[in-house]
Specification:
By secondary structure, the protein is α+β, with helices and mostly antiparallel strands. It has 2 domains: 100 residues, Rieske Iron-sulfur Protein; 213 residues, Naphthalene 1,2-dioxygenase Alpha Subunit, Chain A, domain 1, CATH 3.90.380.10. The chain contains 5 helices and 18 strands.
């Protein structure tokens, strides 16, 4: 018997009665670290315009991308040493966001400052804190296990823009069942169609997982596993608040991979780290990289991984953008199934966090 559930996307404008769409006291990926240098780089995060750059000692800076005078984008201005000069009337701001010069304007007003955002370099990404600066703690950035382990292989960070609400991506990343239909030639396979899912609440998110025993190796992984024959496969889909995920794929020789068994030395493990940064309510910047338990430092293997993963994520992109359009234009209500329990519970708990944050701010 199918179980039907319902959920709604939180309201868009924050009030006591209708909380905002985003959790702001959280770390988000602003950009791939190597993409931020001396040049002024505009981005939009949680529907806020931000300019990124690095000062001369290499430290990253994130400022509100709007001059206090006429809200002209600072990213359209120019660098003056470590400062930014507005391209409209020449107001100049230091890396803290304080206005240091108002040409022809006399005394600098006390309110002449733009917002400065806490930022941190970690795991090949530039992270930004979108909430209250006083409570920004870099130790709260999503932890990547074995980042410095020389025995672990790793792909370079990558990203794409997906024209959908970020919650549709968290839905997708808490949904192992979709691989049978969306990724039949890569991540999927017949065993992904019927095996039940196990959903568990975690302190900082949700986990949906399953073991699929004595099956064929899925096409994407077949060229990488170090054993022949059938496999025991684990899908581990974990999403943490506000919208970051680790997707773990485990392939062990059949009969060796179940939770109660001993892990075979040839077991394949891939961890896919996925970080969603809302641009606004209908678009998301999707960042990722993968680690693996073999071939450390092998550039050719990393490039094969990167190419295959990007192709699979493009399959998700097509589906998710169609879902965004369908949900935004539908004239009939949608339903949820038992397979949506993980996404539904994640949304509910995230909504509670957003409501609590909104209440504290009012």
């Amino acid at each position: 018997m199918l179980l039907f559930l319902r959920y709604t996307i939180p309201a868009m404008r924050p009030t006591r009665e209708a909380p905002g769409l985003f959790l702001r006291n959280a770390w988000y990926v602003a950009e791939i670290s190597s993409n931020v240098g001396a040049a002024l780089k505009p981005v939009r995060i949680l529907d806020e315009p931000i300019v990124l750059y690095r000062i001369q000692n290499g430290d990253p800076v994130a400022l509100e991308d709007a001059c206090v005078h006429r809200k002209f984008p600072l990213s359209m201005g120019k660098r003056i040493g470590d400062q930014i000069q507005c391209g409209y009337h020449g107001l100049t701001y230091d890396s803290r966001g304080l206005c240091t010069s108002v040409p022809g304007g006399g005394k600098i007003p006390d309110t002449a400052r733009v917002r400065s955002y806490p930022v941190a370099d970690r795991y090949g990404f530039l992270w930004i804190w979108m909430g209250l600066p006083a409570v920004a703690d870099p130790s709260g950035i999503f932890a990547v296990e074995k980042w410095d382990d020389p025995q672990i292989g790793r792909t370079d960070p990558d990203s794409m823009t997906v024209a959908c609400n970020y919650l549709y991506i968290t839905d997708n990343l808490l949904d192992p069942s979709h691989v049978a239909w969306v990724h039949p030639s890569s991540f999927g396979g017949p065993s992904c169609e019927q095996t039940p899912l196990v959903t568990n609440a975690l302190p900082e998110g949700m986990l949906v997982s399953r073991w699929m025993l004595n099956n064929e190796v899925a096409p994407f992984y077949a060229k990488f596993v170090r054993f022949h024959g059938r496999t025991d496969r684990q899908q581990h889909y974990e999403v943490r608040f506000p919208c970051h995920a680790i997707i773990r794929a485990v392939f062990a020789p059949a009969g060796t991979g179940a939770p109660e068994g001993r892990i075979h030395p040839d077991t394949f493990v891939m961890d896919s780290y996925n970080f969603m940064t809302p641009i606004d309510e209908t678009a998301t910047r999707y960042f990722w990289f993968q680690t693996r338990n073999f071939a450390p430092g092998d550039k050719a293997i990393s490039e094969m991984f990167a190419s295959s993963v990007r192709a699979a994520f493009n399959e998700d992109k097509v589906v998710l953008e169609a879902v965004q359009t369908g949900m935004a234009t539908t004239r009939t209500p949608h339903i949820d199934l038992v397979i949506d329990m993980g996404p539904t519970r994640f949304r509910r708990r995230l909504k509670q966090k957003i409501e609590a944050e909104t209440m504290q701010a009012t």
